[in-house]
Structure formats: C-alpha cells, structure tokens
Design brief:
mainly beta; five-stranded mixed beta sheet; about 5% helix; disordered N terminus
Length: about 550
C-alpha cells in the first residue's frame, strides 16, 4: 500500500530549560568542576569528582538514567579531584578520564583512567600529557580519537594538542593552533563535521574567539556574532536541534557570571531566548542524554571565590517535540484495517501518544490499526505529549469509500465452438481508480470492464472470473460459467424424392442434348464417308458396277 508523506504540525519547536531538581532524590551534592560524560555502552551519564565550597575535592561516582541519579561504589576510583576531562571513546567503548587538580595538595594530576560497566581502571603509561586542569576534550569521529587542548598547571597556561586512541596518548603539532588557554570547552559539531572550541582564559585575558579542528588542523573562524569573552562555561552538541549549545560561564576575575544560551551551526553563533533559564553560573557540566532525549546540565558555581556559592541543581534543555504520521494515500475503504505509525522527535522521554479517528474512536501508542465502519470524510489526528507536557500534533483528512463490488454478465451462457460470447462487468464503490482483470477459464486473461467478445476453440464448461482492485488495495471478485458445445456430427440427411415436374425437366433436358448432338454429328460427316464397320475396322467402299460391252453381250 502506498504511503502518504508525513503531515507535521508542531506546536512547539524551540528549546526550553526545565529544572528537574525538585524531583531528584538522591542527587550529587552541590559542587563545581566535576567531570561528566555519557556512557553509551552502559546507557547512562556518569559524573565524577568536583569540589565543595571549601574546595574539598570529591571522589564519588554517580550515574544518571531515566531521570534519576544513583550513586555507585566502584572498588577502585581515581583520587579526589576537580576540573579534569571525561570523554566517551566509542571505539574502545569506555570513558576516558585524564588530569584534574587536588586543590588541597595543589597537585595537578597526569594519570589516565577508563570507566566501563561500573568500574574504574588506571591505564596510566609513561608517555602522556603533563599534569593539568581546566583542559578540555571531545571525541572527534573524523580522526577517530579523543582530542584534548590546553589547560593550566601551577606554572603554565598550556596550548598543546593531544589525541588519545587505543589506550595511548600522542601529541599533535598542528600549524597555527589557538593561543594557550584554559577553561575553553570543546564539542564536536555533527552538522558541520568538526570540533568547535570557543573562548577560555590565559590567566590575564578572556577570549571570545571561535576555532575549528578538522583532520588534525586548527582554523580560526570569524563569525559576525558571538558570545562575549568567557571561560568555564558548559557546551555540548544537541542532535535534536542540530547545533552546539553553550550556556553560562564567567570572566577570569570572577566579577561577572553569565546565564545566556547560545547555539552554533554553519560557522555562526545565535543567541537563544528561552522562556526560563538556569541562573548565571560557571564550572557546570553538560552532556547529551540520548536515553532521556535532552541535554543534561548539573552543578556549578553561582559566585566564586568569595563567597563561593554552589548549586546541586539538575536542568534539562529540551527541544520542542514534533510528530508526523504515515498513512495510506487517498481514500480508504470501509472495513479495511489501516495501520498508522507516528514519527516522533524532540521533547523529553517518555512520550504519550494519542489518536482520534474522526468517527468517535480513539487509540494510544506510537503505532495503531483502525477499521473505519462507514463511508465519508474523516480527519485523523495524532497528539504527542512529552515528559514535560510539551505538545505537538499532526492531522490528515481521508475519504472513506464504500467497499468495492462487482457483477459480471456472460451472454450467451451456452454456445458452440467458435461462437461469440460477450462479457461485461459492472463495478461500484471502492477507492478510485479501479483495476479490472478477467480469467476466462481456458488460460486467457483480459482487462477492463468490457463489454468484449471472446470465442472458445474447444467444448466444455469454463469458469469465468472478474476481479476488481481499488486504489486502497482491496480486491473483490465475481464468477460465472459458460458452457461450450461442439459442432453436431452423424450421417448426412437423405434428399427428398424428386417430383414429376423434376422428372419432366430432366427428360426434356436429355432430349435437347441428344438432338443437338445429332445435328452436330451430321454437319461434321464428309460426303460418302465410310460407315463404320465391325468394331475396329473401316467398311470397304462399294464395288464398281460391271462393265457391259456395247451391243449387249460379250
């Protein structure tokens, strides 16, 4: 059955922030500088570390799944730290943690850990980046590796570029990289197929420049509009919006915190103005949570360092939902089971999907089947409601047709071999156009309503079938039978006895023929012609008379 194009009528299409904090117990304590990433293999977001208001670093591990936080207790964990990197490696299917700072000991860590199936594993080798904090990293599918840039330690602001693949760190030396900096988050822009780096701080100045990393090379971009200079903001790619999303951050002297939302695509920045937003903050973490269908952001500092005010809030940035559905093209027949499937996107899971069919019946779920009981025009509606009550709807009007019917006429019902037989069909109802086909019982087929004539070349009883198929794919048939008899056979019938008139005519004709033959024969015989003698011989000519001497005697 052919399908209609989707019918889309979104009631909401832009993103919104939703505060999830009130419904989340337990949840990570308020903190700044934690590390967070989504573990695609195990199907949850993972948060590790960070520090409290006294800059006491944490070493706890939390997971976020289906809208709920859970603390887990691995037998071994990295040491307490904040401001390291945590990135998912889809090739090796584990999270990679590197670096960070233990503020109490002033150590800048240089160890590398992996996390998988709820366990931390130390894979530090003798070759790797120097210890640092406030570096940033992201998975780059183009070079199939984790890419890390910059950061800071106790003596240096760093501007080096590293890649991590197969458990090994390798330093890259691209031409014209960004200047050394820290606190400049990166995200891979799937729509444009490159890593994006924005902003950061070098210890004295804040940046507002935008860079892309493609195939091992850095290139500065020059968008006409961009966020103001800042560092320590949250940034991640939102596949539903098809953009990189940036929120918040602050300036290096901690006198200004931001609470604005920006998107990046095709080399340009666009500020968004959602109806509600988190308060201004920096040192938050944000990741895309595909299982729940939104960007997940948590924790952060709303003022720092004096006084330090931290939040334990959890926020979701959710795009507006959209819904479409596929259905048969054109009309539908009464009594026909019609399947409807909704195409759902945006919003936050779980979805609630409801249908109304315009005939008083309703259904729920992403897919459903309905049978229309009467003809006429109906409007089918589907409505999507997401977890946060956002709505989207789609509709389409269908013409419900009566089921097709067909009758056939065969004339005559009994015929002889070679005699014309006329066939015709009378079709009604159904979704137009109609297709009509025939089988004649002797291997032949025909098409169309007729009338048309056929001749059978053999005797017997032949089943004739006519089938009507309408545009909705519904078929109905009607049958008939024609009996064909052979040509009659047997002795030839006797002629009637001739009448007296016939005899007279025959005798007269014979007399005429004989007379004509006689006359023709006389006309052709030469004078004195010899008459026929015995069969096979000619008669001799007559003898000459005897000679008599003169005087009478000899």
């Amino acid at each position: 059955m052919s399908r209609a194009a989707p019918h889309v009528h979104p009631l909401a299409s832009s993103g919104r922030w939703f505060n999830l904090t009130a419904g989340l117990t337990p949840a990570p304590a308020a903190r700044l500088g934690a590390m967070m990433a989504y573990d695609a293999k195990d199907g949850y977001a993972v948060l590790f570390g960070g520090s409290n208001t006294s800059l006491f670093p944490f070493t706890d591990t939390w997971t976020y799944k289906s809208g709920a936080w859970s603390q887990i207790f691995p037998p071994t964990s990295p040491s307490a730290r904040l401001l390291g990197i945590l990135v998912y490696d889809p090739v090796d299917q584990y999270l990679v943690l590197f670096g960070g700072q233990d503020v109490l000991s002033s150590n800048f860590d240089s160890d590398t850990w992996t996390f998988s199936a709820g366990h931390w594993t130390n894979i530090t080798s003798s070759v790797g980046p120097a210890g640092r904090a406030l570096s940033d990293a992201a998975w780059d599918p183009v070079v199939q590796s984790v890419v890390m840039f910059g950061g800071a330690n106790s003596t240096l602001i760093l501007g080096d570029t590293w890649r991590f693949v197969g458990g090994t760190w390798t330093e890259l030396f691209p031409l014209s990289p960004p200047s050394a900096r820290a606190g400049s988050p990166m995200a891979f822009d799937v729509a444009d197929n490159y890593l994006v780096l924005f902003g950061g701080v070098n210890g004295t100045a804040d940046f507002s420049d935008t860079w892309r990393f493609t195939n091992g090379s850095w290139t500065q971009l020059f968008p006409s509009v961009a966020p103001s200079a800042r560092a320590a903001f949250a940034m991640s790619y939102d596949p539903q919006l098809g953009t990189v999303l940036l929120f918040g951050g602050g300036v290096s002297n901690d006198t200004l915190f931001f609470g604005d939302t920006w998107t990046f695509r095709s080399g340009g920045w666009t500020q968004q103005f959602p109806t509600a937003s988190p308060s201004a903050r920096q040192f938050s973490q944000m990741v895309w949570d595909p299982a729940d269908g939104y960007l997940l952001m948590t924790s952060g500092a709303t003022s720092y360092p004096t006084p330090t005010q931290l939040v334990s809030e959890t926020w979701a940035f959710v795009t507006g939902p959209t819904v479409a559905f596929s259905a048969p093209v054109g009309a539908v027949d009464v009594g026909q089971a019609v399947s409807f499937t909704a195409s759902l996107s945006g919003g936050a899971l779980p979805y609630n999907v409801s249908w109304s069919f315009g005939d008083g019946h309703v259904a729920s779920g992403g897919s459903t089947t309905h049978v229309f009981q009467g003809p006429g025009a109906v409007q089918v509606n589907v409505t999507l409601k997401d977890r946060f009550g956002q709505l989207a709807a789609a509709n389409h009007t269908f013409n419900i047709s009566a089921r097709p019917a067909v009758g056939l006429t065969v004339s005559p019902l009994t015929a002889v071999v070679g005699q014309n037989v006329t066939l015709s069909a009378a079709a009604s109802g159904g979704s137009r156009p109609l297709s009509i086909s025939w089988t004649l019982g002797d291997g032949r087929i025909e098409s169309g309503p007729g009338p048309f004539t056929v001749r059978y070349t053999a005797s017997g009883s032949f089943a004739i079938n006519v089938t009507v198929t309408d545009a909705a794919g519904v078929q109905v048939s009607s049958q008939g039978t024609v009996t064909i008899q052979g040509v009659a056979s047997g002795p030839a019938p006797s002629a009637p006895p001739p009448s007296f008139l016939t005899y007279g005519l025959v005798i007269g004709a014979l007399v005429v023929v004989a007379a004509v033959a006689f006359l023709v024969g006389r006309r052709r015989r030469p004078p004195n012609a010899p008459t026929a003698g015995p069969a096979g011989t000619a008669s001799p000519p007559p003898a000459a008379p005897p000679l008599t001497p003169p005087g009478g005697s000899g």
